[in-house]
Amino acid sequence: MSDDTPTQLEFGWEEWVALPDLGLPALRAKVDTGARTSALHASEIEVFGPNAKPKVRFIVNPVAGDDGLAIPCSATILDRREVTSSNGEKEMRYVIGSKLTVNGQSWPIEITLTNRAGMASRMLLGRQALTEHITITATEKHLQPELSYDVYRSAGLRKTAPKRALRIAVLSREDNYSTRRLVQEGEARGHTVEVIDTTRCYMAINAMSPEVHYDGARLPRYDAVVPRIGASITPYGTAVIRQFETIGTYCVNGSTGIASSRDKLQAHQILASQKIGMPTTAFAASPKDTRNLMDLVGTAPMIVKLLESTQGKGVVLAETKKAAESVIDAFRGLRANFLVQHFVKEAAGEDIRCLVIAGKVVAAMKRTGADGDFRSNLHRGGTAKVARITRQERATAVKAAKAFGLGIAGVDLLRSEDGPKVLEVNSSPGFEGIETATGKNVVGFLYDEIETHAAPKPTRRKVRSGG
């Protein structure tokens, strides 16, 4: 049966209906020919999205008298209009659209959102929903097949619920490829994506109602936060993420994982504790230990790396022990913290970047350093191409991301004679290089994970009794 041409139906003064677009498979609806537009009971109504195409999300308690059953819904706003109720009260309501389904037949209707908490029927069907194919017998009810609220207790309801528009925050200070792709892909999927400068966030820290504020106003409730925290603001950035975690917002990468991955000393200690292969590494605070420090790593050449290094900056290849000693003395003269690492010569200036999302390697590329440069960073003139990785390399990358509890991570591997070695675990990996090299929609994989974890689902809430 076509949605546009329903066959003749007979309605009583109350019928069972469904609104599948909103994830509501069973509702008791009162038929009211005196009302123009249909109305749906809704609470926690919140507007979001761009001004040109705003959306609304809200909660529906489909069963009268059972406020514990809460169905989260979202829809595009069609209009906002004044509605006069049967007792003469006027109210401004948001108007949305949805398909109405009765007895296997569906057709589009308009619905206003309002509080019907005191009504036995959580929906009212107005004239606009009652097409010429419907006749009304006002003295009868349930002339169409009856439905059951038991469907809301079904485990399959979560699986069949429609994809709902999400409100997502990207914590980023930069207008770069990665940030733009996060916005582009999210909006293409119908979500609202807001880019927030992390350093302009501030926090109300209290036990009862922790909040994040931005430019003088409290930030709204987000379904998910995607952190793109720069290395220079790691301490403050992770504090902001902790605040979102306290509120209960789903964060793609948590504050603990970001902080530990950025601390190169702690990162290597975590990798070692999980028995994950990495270049032999040594660290010391005393200048007297320079020679012993180098002996722990082995023979030259060796890498001397600042703990705060990013994108290949602050990483020096010392060809001889004498050169290494000079570099170490120079770093110590600057009171800089650093590591000394074994140089994996057989890697020949190449590494493998594995992008891990939700415990799976979704893309991998081989990066090759510019002529004469042992560093393979693309920011330093390196090149990249798609890489075929071994089962062992795949397992190592997944294990490394898991060790830090990261939902998304760029795991850099070196191919050594005795297996893959983890060079670094990046908690804010860039997307441009790997999407260009592999031709894969990496950001799309990330949104698949966000939609799985952050999409609002039917819930059973605890309702406090009065007294």
From TrEMBL:
Gene3D superfamilies: 3.40.50.20, Acid Proteases, ATP-grasp fold, A domain, ATP-grasp fold, B domain
InterPro entries associated with the record: Asp_endopeptidase, ATP-grasp, ATP-grasp_RimK-type, ATP_grasp_subdomain_1, Peptidase_aspartic_dom_sf, Rimk_N, Rp_bS6_RimK/Lys_biosynth_LsyX
Entries under Pfam families matching the protein: RimK, Rimk_N, Zn_protease
Species: Aliishimia ponticola
Family recorded in the similarity comment: In the C-terminal section; belongs to the RimK family.
Gene Ontology CC terms, in alphabetical order: cytoplasm; ribosome
Keyword Chaperone: no
Gene that specifies this protein: rimK
Protein name: Probable alpha-L-glutamate ligase
Keywords annotated in UniProt: ATP-binding, Ligase, Magnesium, Manganese, Metal-binding, Nucleotide-binding, Protein biosynthesis, Ribonucleoprotein, Ribosomal protein
GO biological processes: SOS response; translation
Domain ATP-grasp residue range list: 268-451
Cofactor requirements of the protein: Mn(2+); Mg(2+)
MF-aspect GO terms: ATP binding; metal ion binding; ribosomal S6-glutamic acid ligase activity
